[in-house]
Amino acid sequence: MRTSRSQPPRIDAGLFFLRLTGCLLLLYVHGLPKVFHFSEELTRIEDPFGLGPYMSLLPAIFAEVVCPVFILAGVFARLACLPIIGVLLVAMLVVHPGWSLAEGQFGWLLLIIFTTLAITGPGRWRLGSARHNEVRYGAS
Asked: Which residues cross the membrane (predicted)?
């Protein structure tokens, strides 16, 4: 039975695809290299606020490794998008303000993906959603 709050399955499929592809791209291109090459990254990371490389790298790792795992699972997805959005905005507006749109297109596309997910939420295809729907609609 469809309620006024339900949406077509293709919307949930689209949100899942957006979560999956956005998170895997962020993890593969940015997050995991920072973890696997931590010492090397400490020598290369920009320090836009003068906090030191360690205090610049840790928030980036949190946003690019921990948060995507939550988003992939659909758990606290909207909240987990916020650190990613913050790191991307710092990268695009503070660290690389002179980049052309072509040079920064990957960052801007990631920003679009995670801002969209922050607005929409993860959809129904997420961990714990079946149990949540049982409680909400009284199914047994």
From this structure: 12-31, 51-72, 79-99, 105-123
Looking at residue 125, its amino acid is W
User: Which structural domain range is residue 97 located in?
Assistant: 9-137
pTM attached to this predicted model: 0.86
What is the rounded average pLDDT of the residues 79-95? 97
| Domain total of the chain | 1
Rounded Cα–Cα distance for residues 33 and 41 (Å):
8
Q: How many CB atoms lie within 10 A of CB 49?
A: 10
Per cent of the chain over pLDDT 70 is 87
Site of tokens 């990613």: 84
Cβ–Cβ under 8 Å, residues 81 and 115:
yes
pLDDT in tens, 8-19: 889 999 999 999
**In the structure encoding, which two tokens stand for residue 60, read together?**
């980036």
What one-character DSSP code corresponds to residue 101? T
Q: Which token pair is 16?
A: 């899942």
Closest CA to 23 of 95, 119, 122: 122
Give domain status of residue 4, yes or no.
no
Cα–Cα dist 101/107, whole Å: 10
